[in-house]
Automatic annotation (TrEMBL), chain A:
It comes from the Bacteria. Gene3D superfamilies: P-loop containing nucleotide triphosphate hydrolases. GO terms for molecular function: ATP binding; ATP hydrolysis activity; branched-chain amino acid transmembrane transporter activity. This is ABC transporter ATP-binding protein. Residues 2-231 form the ABC transporter domain. Keywords: Amino-acid transport, ATP-binding, Nucleotide-binding, Transport. GO terms for biological process: L-amino acid transport. Belongs to the ABC transporter superfamily. It holds the Pfam family ABC_tran.
UniProtKB/TrEMBL annotation, chain B:
It is found in: Cell membrane. Pfam families: BPD_transp_2 (PF02653). It comes from the Bacteria. This is Branched-chain amino acid ABC transporter permease. Its main location: membrane.
């Protein structure tokens, strides 16, 4: 289980996250919602060690992630797909996946797992990543992160800018991964997506998690969406 | 035919053509080609750092000079034989790159460029300051009797060409193997997006340091071979010009391509050789050629070719 306990974090003198706490359980999808500037992406980056944590702690099992250098966080089983995908454009699909497999020394079995998850990537293994469509790039970004065989997957707005069929595919993938026991933390602005795949929703404002709701307690016209997302 | 087969086939074909060139070229051009092969090895090392990993260095003259003096000084002062001296030069380049890297890699981008430039200038001034040991600005000549490798007199045309070719072939094939290896992909990943690479568990400092050391070994090997094959060790090889030249070779031939440094060194060498026969302002012509390159083929000759036609070119 990923536990974020009372963290305060930010960029230099600017504090973005203030005494923020929440938990992400294995086999559950926890969606993070909030207006622009609420601190959703900063939370992701703080978990990954890319934003320094000034106080509080981030724990995964026995590992204190907030004490580790950023490149060691993935080695403890946390994978991150940032907004905008950020693939290695000149490398092929196969090479992007291989780069993902190398650090945790995951072999053919893991490679087959991610390619089974995204059969379209299997058809395009020799294609240069920068020439893929937006949806295919997102698939590759998620596949590459999954190569680490994570316990926790952080997805920052994976459906942003994608066509509806791709958004459905990403949703289905997240649901399939949930069945494997993965804890997924998903920053998402689309209410319909959240209602379909979330187990819990954490609503953020002003750098804090202000409210955590169970999916069963939410409907599309819930006042929480109006209050924290403005829809 | 797979991309790998095509890549190995092309590089072996180029090596075969270069080897055969000695039998058809006049002596002057064969000697030039030997010189170009050694300079191409220097540029290959620069390409590993800059072209594949994105480390824009202005300090490679220091690594080249480390190899040159690492070979030359033991021969001059201790009468060490050519082969161990060559190995010492090669190691000196790698060690120097490692030492510079440990400090300089704490910076990035323009700061890295300036810090490496400062190290190179400090190295150059140190060579001048220790002139009783290094020969200062004038340098020293490596005695012909010391330039014998496995019984071959490297001052003679054919053994010199073959020695340069062996170094070039080893450098080229090792480079091809390296960039096609998993570590080569990590180098490219680091160049493309350092933060993303870190999020996959790679330590950028470690990857860049290893790359810089490899680059230094190439530069040191080239420096040592240059001194041994052409018989001169001098401070001019530690000046900024020798940091800029490999960059120009790589930019012209194509950064991030295995054959680019050789093509760049070949074209730039003859561009300077030919234009200097007509004018003292030959660097003006070189500058104009580079402006044209930036305008019409910003990824260099082979980089542009790869983008448009040969996607499999490593």
């Amino acid at each position: 289980m990923l536990r974020v306990e009372g963290i305060t974090a930010g960029y230099g003198p600017v504090t973005v996250l203030r005494d923020l706490s929440f938990q992400a359980q294995p086999g559950q999808v926890t969606c993070i919602m909030g207006r622009n500037g609420a601190g959703k992406s900063t939370l992701m980056r703080a978990i990954m060690g890319l934003v320094p944590v000034q106080s509080g702690q981030i724990l995964l099992g026995d590992a204190a992630l907030h004490t580790l250098p950023a490149h060691k966080v993935p080695l403890h089983g946390v994978a991150y797909v940032p907004q905008g995908r950020r693939l290695f454009g000149p490398l092929t699909v196969a090479e992007n996946i291989d780069v993902g497999l190398l650090t945790r020394k995951k072999g053919l079995h893991r490679r087959e797992f991610v390619l089974d998850l995204f059969p379209r990537l299997r058809e395009r293994l020799d294609q240069v990543a920068s020439t893929l469509s937006g949806g295919e790039q997102q698939m590759l970004a998620i596949a590459r992160a999954l190569c680490l065989e994570p316990q926790v997957l952080l997805l920052d707005e994976p459906s942003e800018g994608l066509q509806p069929s791709m958004i459905s595919l990403i949703r289905e993938t997240v649901l399939r991964l949930r069945e494997t026991g993965l804890a997924t933390l998903l920053v998402e602005q689309r209410v319909d997506t959240v209602l379909r795949i979330a187990d819990k929703v954490a609503f953020m404002a002003h750098g804090r998690v202000e409210h955590v709701a169970e999916r069963a307690d939410l409907t599309a016209d819930s006042t929480l969406f109006q209050q924290f997302v403005g829809v | 035919m797979s991309a790998g087969t095509k890549a190995w086939g092309l590089h072996l074909l180029v090596l075969a053509l270069v080897f055969l060139a000695q039998f058809v070229l006049p002596s002057y051009h064969a000697t030039n080609l030997a010189r170009i092969m050694v300079l191409a090895v220097f540029a290959m090392g620069y390409n590993l750092a800059f072209g594949y990993t994105g480390l824009l260095s202005l300090g490679h003259a220091l690594f080249f000079a480390a190899g040159l003096y690492g070979m030359g000084l033991p021969i001059w002062h201790l009468e060490v034989a050519a082969f161990p001296a060559l190995i010492l030069g090669l190691l000196a380049g790698g060690v120097m790159a490692g030492l510079v890297g440990i400090l300089a890699l704490r910076t990035a981008g323009v700061s890295f460029m300036i810090v490496t430039l400062m190290f190179a200038q400090a190295g150059y001034l140190t060579l001048l300051y220790l002139n009783s040991w290094t020969g200062g600005d004038e340098g020293f000549v490596v005695a012909r009797s010391a330039r014998v490798l496995f019984g071959f007199d490297l001052a003679s045309d054919t053994p010199r060409f073959i020695a340069a070719f062996v170094l070039f072939a080893a450098g080229l094939l090792l480079c091809l193997w390296l960039v096609r290896s998993p570590f080569g992909r990590v180098m490219v990943a680091m160049r493309e997006n350092e933060e993303r690479s870190r999020m996959l568990g790679y330590d950028p400092f470690r990857v860049k340091l290893i790359t810089l050391i490899l680059s230094g070994v190439y530069a040191g090997g080239a420096g040592a071979a240059y001194g041994l094959l052409f018989g001169y060790v001098g401070g001019s090889f530690a000046t900024i010009q020798y940091s800029i030249l490999p960059m120009l070779y790589v930019l012209l031939g194509g950064a991030g391509t295995v054959l680019g440094p050789f093509l760049g060194a070949l074209l730039m060498f003859y561009l300077i050789d030919i234009t200097s026969g007509y004018t003292d302002a030959y660097f003006f012509v070189v500058g104009a050629a580079l402006v044209a390159l930036v305008l019409f083929a910003p990824k260099g000759i082979l980089g542009s070719l790869r983008e448009r036609v040969l996607q499999w070119l490593p």
